[in-house]
Amino acid sequence: MADLQVAPWILAIPVKRTAIAKSRLAPAYPQHRPELARAFAVDTTAAALASPLVRAVLVVTDDPSVAADVTAAGAYVVPDLPAAGLNEALLHGAAVAAAEFPDDGVAALSADLPALRPAELTAVLAACTAPRSFVIDQPGTGTTLLAAAPGVPLDPRFGVGSALAHQASGAMPIELTGIESVRRDVDTAADLAHAVQLGVGPATADVMSLVLGAATGTEGLAC
């Protein structure tokens, strides 16, 4: 990684209040859904901070438990002052990042990447050489990362069909192989099973151990 000639990045990670996050996991994990949402955010943040191309991580959230956990991991917490949805939260986070770190690029990163690997994130960020770049999620319709070069508006368009929306807005797709952990966001039980196969971070592994323990009537089993 010594020859990577790119500016450091500031990552903005939006996190919903875990009481309402990851609703599509509720049928499979009715008791542990909030804990899983919190664990995803913690593991995503920790992996992002481990990338040598990430100068800082700003977590945009109003969830006090998430705020405490990501602060302990080394991230900064930005309150979701707009409280008007995902894209507004990201615009707010990007504005804070640009004010604090005007010479660095800003990248919005999904908070539900529990298998995220720092080396794969680093490869993605190194490839973000266009004014705006994005990573398409595993299903092929969504977005897990949107990056904007220093001084370039982030212009997030997350939501249904965001991959096409970001491409239509002029962002360039990152077409790398070997970045499965960056593309594997988790919305459903099947997504989580795939993430576990890739290898989830410690916070998610701990919750999955509790899930397995609850299912078998024991506790503390390894994932």
Descriptive account of the structure:
The radius of gyration is 17 Å and the shape is globular. A hairpin with a 6-residue loop joins strand 5 (132-136) and strand 6 (143-148). It starts with 8 loop residues before the first strand and ends in a 7-residue tail after the last helix. With 223 residues, it is of the alpha/beta class. The protein has a seven-stranded mixed sheet, with helices on both faces. 39% of the residues lie in helices and 16% in strands. Residues 1-5 and 218-223 have low confidence and may be disordered. The protein has helices spanning 33-49, 64-73, 86-100, 118-127, 162-168, 180-183, 189-198, 202-216; strands spanning 9-15, 54-61, 76-78, 105-109, 132-136, 143-148, 172-173. The chain is built from eight helices and seven strands; from the N terminus they run E-H-E-H-E-H-E-H-E-E-H-E-H-H-H.
What are the secondary-structure elements, in order, as H or E?
Answer: EHEHEHEHEEHEHHH
Query: Radius of gyration, Cα only, in angstroms?
Result: 17 Å
> What is the strand content?
15-25%
| Widest sheet, order of strands | 3-2-1-4-6-5-7
The helix fraction, in percent, is 25-40%
Oligomer category: single chain
Return the average pLDDT rounded to an integer: 92
Structural class: alpha/beta
Characterize the biggest β-sheet: 7 strands, mixed
Layout of helices and strands:
Layout: E1 9-15, H1 33-49, E2 54-61, H2 64-73, E3 76-78, H3 86-100, E4 105-109, H4 118-127, E5 132-136, E6 143-148, H5 162-168, E7 172-173, H6 180-183, H7 189-198, H8 202-216
Parallel strand pairs: 1-2, 1-4, 2-3, 5-7
Antiparallel strand pairs: 4-6, 5-6
Helix pairs in contact: 1-2, 1-8
